[in-house]
Amino acid sequence: MNEGDYPGAADRFPVWNKVNGEAWLGLTRRRLAEQALFLGKAWQPFLNYEEGTVQVLKLAEPRMQAEDIRRLQEALKQAGINIEPDGFFGNETDRAVKQFPQQKGLTADGIVGAESRRLLGL
Question: What is the pLDDT of residues 85-108, one digit of tens each?
């Protein structure tokens, strides 16, 4: 942050969620909320954030946020989709989730299913 790399600084918030090397859900929620505040976004969704493995992402699913979304966004960006990873499922991510399967000849149904995850390396 001292070097003016605010996006890089924002990316570091979720890293500081551990006690004795183990991630704690309460700290994870706090760090994600702090990150959202830093980015000028809503922090309240992180009060109910639950960790878990991403199996299928649905556009309307309210709990899909933060690191799951960031990983998806980063994979989409690496796949050539014009998106900036921010950990929030907004309009840009909605567009990217529909654009990627269209480019790969898959059904663009707003779900990141098994084949899309495989192609994205998730």
Answer: 887 777 788 889 889 988 998 887
